[in-house]
Amino acid sequence: MGVIALSWADILLAALPLAALAAVFAWQRLELSRTMLIGAVRTFVQLALVGFVLKGVFQNAHPVWTVGFSLVMLAAGTWEVSRRQHRRFAAGWTVGFAVLGMFTAGFTVTVFALLALVGVSPWWSPQYAIPLLGMILGNTMTGIALGMDTLTQSAWKQRAVIENRLALGQTAAEAVTELRRESVRTAMTPIINSLAVCGVVSLPGMMTGQILSGSDPLAAVRYQMMIMYLIATGAGFGSLLTIQLCVRRLFDGRERLRLDRLTG
Amino acid sequence: MSSFEVSELRYGGFGPVSFAMQAGETVGVTGPSGCGKTRLLRALADMDPWLGEIRLGAGRPAEMSASAWRRRVAYVPAESQWWFDGVGAHFVAAPQTEEVRGLGLDPEVLSWPVARLSSGEKQRLGLLRTLANRPSVLLLDEPTAHLDAERSRAFEALVKRRCAEGMMAVWVAHDPEQLRRVATRGYRMAAQGVWKEAVSWA
Questions:
Q1: Considering only residues 235 to 254 of chain A, which have any Cβ-Cβ distance to chain B shorter than 8 Å?
Q2: Average pLDDT of B139-156?
Q3: Domain boundaries, position B103
Q4: What are phi and psi of B200, to 5 degrees?
Q5: Can you tell me the distance from the alpha carbon of A72 to that of A137, in angstroms, rounded to the nearest whole number?
Q6: Based on the structure, what is the number of domains in chain B?
Q7: Which residues 6+ apart lie within 8 Å of B50 measured at CB?
């Protein structure tokens, strides 16, 4: 059994209704068609590129390729986290915290899954390692981006409150207790929501893909359960770590609020 | 904790500032807007970077955590901030009922929601909230700006009473009449934070 392959012509055909939608958008002057079409072209180019690269990596399985591809994903994720920030720490600290959070949480969780759960041999087999890491890093990235942005934005807006709390003799950690909590909650909201509705409202892409390619639904479902737990774990520990690092960076050794370290 | 000494203090392009207080004293500080009065209080509370020397008794800020220093040398900002829903949650210890009454506040005010407070009530509760830490030095920034004459007098009386028990205060205000009432000594700051002649108000 295998999935019924789609030809490049099929993809072209799938793009036709989308082009029709773009035409309707343009006709209604919604100013959406341009960005949507650019997005559609990006989807095509990026996925085609990934497809070719993965094909090559799978054919010449070697840890160097797995590691290389992982590092590219890490870099892309970091760039995306940084892009989603309204206020960044000066001197590259935002990028540093994002890399550290995604690397520590995302890679640990993935390696754990490969060694202890999937048990594929060798453990770095690109066919397993790359999709797993991709899903885990993607969700960790979303969590970190949301959590960091919430923390820095609300610290900026609540400067007077934080400083009044410091003036009353609270420690830096006490002065941002609620902000920190709110940031972690915001970081975890998407993943907790998807844990709750998974399989009912949404059929996850990976599971759908496995079923399409002829896997036993129960086997596909077990994979999806593992993935859901892994991405929640990665996103959670990743955002906890990153938010903690950001909190420390917001204050100096004398527990002064240092919003001058934020730019933008 | 019998004295508070500041020598050659420089902060954010202002100073140098030097003065000393003994237990029970209140120093008044006045000067044009933008001359660095608020920033002086912030530096004394170690909330902004500073150079020079600050001593409370034998203790220096660097010898303790910043939060411990700020519980002893407590800055009360001109606009108090309230971050919980209820008033009482902002207090580390309940204030004495007579002090609440003395400021003209409802004795039940601690059970009120913050949304119910007027700006004048916030200002007086801001003082009580800081006094609950039992500070050695109180740093007041235009503390009665939202209060009428009667409430201002009550506010002054409370600070004076605490000073009689050994507290010290640095009182920043524009109103020379008020400083004459509360301060044992006064300083006038010129533009750019030049610390000028001691004004005798005795």
A1: 254
A2: 96
A3: 3-199
A4: -90, 125
A5: 11
A6: 1
A7: B9, B10, B11, B43
Identify which of A160, A171, A254 has the shortest CB distance to residue B81: A160
Longest dimension (CA), chain A: 69
Mean pLDDT in each 10-residue stretch from start to end of chain A (264 residues)? Answer: 83 95 95 93 94 92 93 95 95 95 96 94 93 95 97 97 98 97 97 92 85 90 94 97 98 97 90
CB-CB under 8 Å, A163 with B67: no
CATH number, position B134? 3.40.50.300
| A164 contacts on B by Cβ (under 8 Å) | 77, 80-81
Q: pTM to 2 decimals?
A: 0.90
B202–chain A nearest CA distance, Å:
31
Q: What DSSP string describes A46-109?
A: HHHHHHHHHHHHHHT--HHHHHHHHHHHHHHHHHHHHHT-SSEEGGGHHHHHHHHHIIIIIIHH
The C-alpha atoms of residue A190 and residue A235 are separated, in whole angstroms, by 10
Residue B19 — very low, low, confident or very high, per pLDDT cuts 50/70/90?
very high
Query: Which residues 39-68 of A are in CB contact (within 8 Å) with B?
Result: none
Strands B26-30, B51-56: pairing kind: unpaired
Contact assignment for B48 to A168 by CB distance below 8 Å: no
